[in-house]
Amino acid sequence: MTNGNGAARVFGVDIGGSGIKGAPVDLDRGDLAEERHKVLTPHPSTPEAVVDGVVEVAGHFGWSGRPVGVTFPGVVTDGTTRTAANVDKSWIGTDLAGLLGERLGAPVTVLNDADAAGVAEMTFGAGRGRQGTVIVLTLGTGIGSAVFTGGRLVPNTELGHLELDGHEAEKRASTKVREDHDLSWPDWAHRVQKYLAHVEMLFSPELFVIGGGVSRKAHKFLPLIEGIRAEIVPAQLQNNAGIVGAAMAAAAAADGAAAAAP
Ligand code: BGC
């Protein structure tokens, strides 16, 4: 998996509520090797329609026959999508790795979107070198979570669905909720603070990394959050964390397969 210059490259795709974005990733730098390509997420966002979108994104770069990593905004085990909080319900029980693998003629690794972003942040971003418990939270359409200890991920933690004030936390403190209800930054920061306090009570992390598009505006709300013991920092890879993490997961799977080969 090296290009002519010897740099390792793997293709990463981030399936989101609004867009399907992908690019070849330079795994040495933890960054996109080329400008990413995006197609709009189809509505309804059924597996067939989204798979077409991923194939189009890979096709834009002429990428075939080589490993691909893909994120999905729900629980993923063994390449199969198990939940669908913010996408079409027909995703539940879909063998996404199998479907895409057939279409792309390549090994496909699928993982949760927040897990992918977290893996990238832990290696190339805000969590680099941190060995204690680190929790990466993506505040977007929903709330995604990635929990690490000793640098290792506990996949599919789904902390966005914890209960907060009698509701699912992501229905109180996501970016979508802030936008839909036109909440002021202080009002929204107060909700995020309550949520962080709840997660801190359960896990006592040393660090929270706040990701999702809103991490670009961290200065507007992070300084308003008080009373949390853990350090709280914005994500560093921002929009590309999912793509980079997806590619990293695919590379790790390819290495694992090579090591297991007789
Ligand atoms: C899903 C998670 C996902 C998060 C962010 C939640 O609704 O259940 O799996 O990581 O949204 O997309």
TrEMBL record:
GO molecular function: transferase activity
One protein family per Pfam: ROK
InterPro entries: ATPase_NBD (IPR043129), ROK (IPR000600)
Keywords: Transferase
Family statement: Belongs to the ROK (NagC/XylR) family.
Protein name: Polyphosphate-glucose phosphotransferase
Organism from which the protein derives: Streptomyces himastatinicus ATCC 53653
Biological classification of the source: Bacteria, Bacillati, Actinomycetota, Actinomycetes, Kitasatosporales
